[in-house]
Amino acid sequence: MTSRKGSLPAPEPQRVELRVARLLKAHGLKGGIKLELYTDDPELRFQPGAKLSVQVPTDSPWFGQQLTVRELKFFSSQPVAFFDGVDDRTQAESLIKAILWVEADPEAATGEDDAWFDHQLVGLEVRRDGQRLGEVVRVDHLPAQDLLVIRPDGRSDEVLLPFVKAFVPEVLTEQNYLVVTPPGGLFDSAEDAGEAEG
After folding, report:
1. Following DSSP, what letter does each residue of 22-87 receive, concatenated?
2. 105 with 6: CB under 8 angstroms?
3. What is the average pLDDT across 43-69?
4. Which contacts (CB < 8 Å, 24+ apart) does range 167-173 have?
5. What's the pTM?
6. DSSP run (H or E) holding 92
7. Domains of the chain and any CATH numbers
8. Cα–Cα distance measured from residue 3 to residue 52, given in angstroms and rounded to the nearest whole number
């Protein structure tokens, strides 16, 4: 979930599948696996008994299966999950790079008025002063803040914009766009910058 300070209304509820984590590496000898989290609420997503779909290559023994959470622990702030049926390091290593998904109700899961899941932001048109600049292609979750990754129209590069109220004052998911007030020059192409300097 991606949240931002503000008071915009919550989106319409719907049933969706949400990406919650990627499995990074085995931890210890008892089947623990370090996680890269894509959720703001790991305690909810990884509570004991939670069932998660596993995205793996078709030749993986885990293809088409679900994992049931046994326990979530933190070691030096690094989340480590333990799953039923994953009892040793060899089994844990067979899951490395897998993506975990959960089916969830966004309205029940957010609990915030000004919060969105990644899938609600990806694909939104990006506008500044009523003019289209491009569209959101993904959301990067960093420790300090979330970043909107925007592909400007007519360009192959990407622009990273902090997802904060100062730079993204309006998110209108029902109208399929958001409004940005980015720092000066952020959306100027290299050619534009060269012309300005020349």
Report:
1. EEEEEETTTTEEEEEE--S-HHHHTSTT-EEEEE--TTSTTTT-EEEEEEEEEETTEEEEEETT--
2. no
3. 91
4. 168/4, 170/8, 171/4, 171/8, 171/116, 171/121, 171/124, 173/11, 173/116, 173/120, 173/121, 173/124
5. 0.51
6. helix 89-93
7. 16-107 (2.40.30.60), 118-197 (2.30.30.240)
8. 23
Q: Of the given ranges (3-12, 51-60, 131-140), which has the lowest mean pLDDT? A: 3-12
Q: Return the amino acid letter for 155.
A: R
> Which position has the higher pLDDT, 102 or 149?
149
pLDDT at 25: 93
- Residue 145, amino acid: Q
Question: What is the DSSP code (8-state) at residue 166?
Answer: T
Residue 13 in tokens? 């509820």
Q: Which two tokens stand for residue 7?
A: 């008071």
